[in-house]
Amino acid sequence: MNVTHIYHSGFLVELEHTLLLFDYYQGPLPPLDPAKPLFVFVSHKHYDHYCPAIWQLAEQHPAVWYVLDQAIPARRSANVLLVEPRQIYHWQGLTIETLRSTDEGCALLVTAEGKTLYHAGDLNWWHWEGEPEADNAWHDKAFHEELERIRGRRFDAAFLPLDPRQEGNAWWGFVEFLHACPCRHVFPMHYADNKAAMLAYLILPQLAEFLPAIHTEDQWQEA
What we know:
Order of helices and strands: EEEEHEEEEEEHEHEHE
Largest sheet: 7 strands, mixed
Number of helices: 4
Distance between the termini: 8 Å
């Protein structure tokens, strides 16, 4: 398994026979092996998770399949699967499970070639200083409801928000997920150009036990 962090929440995962592209919206794509089918996943329609340029990939790559949140504007086609929260789909040799985001769209659980991956999209424990207490309480409850649906699941790779805009609360959802779901490899995301601020959370004692699994380099290859 080769993982390339493209930008923000965008990742390319290359398996032995399959390419998986998650929430791409900007940045240069690495070379795409034309011998491998490309699955393009979009968790929701926010500009920093979805770019219409993904449709051009079908003109550049021999076999492209799209797995999109139902709110994404998409033509009906045999190579497009629109997904809803809290569903399971078996499609083109993949198993795709969805959770309900605490913002918009879905989180994605994808099993391919015996590997199970989790991409959170915007499902996170969003606690914002200065926001109404009722709003933060709703996010707390909604995040933990989704987490309980998968508690105990094991993932080969998990892509999780660690967003410095949340200041002192940014690590809450990240750590809660890792306590609930053992992960072999963990990739922080949703930090845009604030990589240094994201890295500062990794020295917190609450993250210490997970550090061996956390990867922060732009390209990573499983041994």
